[in-house]
Amino acid sequence: MVCEYYCAMLKSETVWLVVATLRYTEHIAFDRTLDAEKGIFEFYVPTAAEPFFLELMHSFSERGYVADLLKKENRLKNPGAVL
Predict the structure, then answer these.
(1) Which domain does 15 fall in, by range?
(2) Three-state DSSP state, 80
(3) N or C: which end of the chain has fewer CB within 10 A?
């Protein structure tokens, strides 16, 4: 199964909150740090969990924890894709 793919910037002082929430809530998304200095994370989201993931990320965005959430082509489908 191929997941939906998102990238976002996380505010450094709240990274732990966002990551812990995603890990606590099973099967919502798998997160990974792309660029620690810039706070850029990638998220692999099962298609069935996408609505809840977007709702959660919108809530985090309203609080200023997440910025620039973008849906992109899943880079695992195209390993040469530019981030």
Answers:
(1) 4-72
(2) coil
(3) N
